Amino acid sequence: MRIGLIGTGRIGSFHAAALSRHPQAGSLLLADADPARAARLADRLGATAAPSVEQVFTWGVDAVVVACATEGHAELVVRAVRGGLPVFCEKPVAPDLARTLAVLREVEALGGVLQLGFMRRFDAGYGRARELVSAGALGRLHTVRTTTSDAEPPQAAYLATSGGLYRDCLVHDFDVVRWVTGHEVAEVYAAGSDAGPARFRETGDVDTAAAVLALDDGTLVTATGTRCNGAGYDVRMELAGERDQVCVGLDDRTPIASTEPQGPPAASKPWTGFLERFGPAYEAELAAFVRLVRGEGPNPCGGREALAAFRVAEACELSRRERRRVRLEELPDL
């Protein structure tokens, strides 16, 4: 098997290293808008560097991994699918809902294979929470709480093309809420604050956000996020039911301290970022893609799954902007 990987920045380099260690991934062909960066990574991993992205499609590969900047995702996914190649794409498919729908319609019309990168589905803690909910161990869920907090804000250049806090960051929470609970989001109400660094106001984004989601079975979900959590990278999910409650992401590296006299101490080595916290999950999702390409496993996160989470993020952005509740049925769908 030969896999072409496009984009050798931070996440692309991580994916390339993971695939280079996979016993069934075969050889790697790396490409980047900066050919020198692809060449340096290829030298480190014993892979082949292409002089441009074009060669990924003309030199012959069995599958494509898209890990470049967001604005390039749609074109590359469509090109791969038109060439009959299975494709793994980091979220999102496209920067906005209209282009996302256009890409997914073409993927489905061509019978293409597209797996989206929602790595929390491969995290052990979220997987266990899903098992407990499915088995009824918590009883009827009444409340779910999620939080995603970055240790420090990204640069302005990244914010300008990220799509905003809901689409870029909290979309992971929206996806995993659906995956763990087995229910769809019916309605949202969202608010955001840009009171932090000036770069957020300058790019029309918010540094902190909160959303209330109503699921189709009546369960209430609160989802909060921030780019400015100085204590460290904090990603948690609490699920409370009539019988019991559990928490994902609560361990000796969770960057939160108790004020109680007998409470646990603050983490001595808090999580610093998403690659450190979800490293094993990223490797597991790529292993699932290799199995998918080899015909040995199902697609763990297809286009429609990714679309469902993206529509929730779009609804939250609309709610924040118009200061009102938004029902998901207001947004276009496939």
UniProtKB/TrEMBL annotation:
GO MF term list: nucleotide binding; oxidoreductase activity
Gene3D superfamilies reported for this sequence: Dihydrodipicolinate Reductase, domain 2, NAD(P)-binding Rossmann-like Domain
Residue intervals of the Gfo/Idh/MocA-like oxidoreductase N-terminal domain: 1-118
Residues annotated as domain GFO/IDH/MocA-like oxidoreductase: 128-243
InterPro entries hit by this protein: Gfo/Idh/MocA-like_OxRdtase_N, GFO_IDH_MocA-like_dom, NAD(P)-bd_dom_sf
Keywords assigned: Oxidoreductase
Listed Pfam families: GFO_IDH_MocA (PF01408), GFO_IDH_MocA_C3 (PF22725)
Keyword Oxidoreductase: yes
Domain of life: Bacteria
UniProt similarity note: Belongs to the Gfo/Idh/MocA family.
Protein name, UniProt field: Dehydrogenase
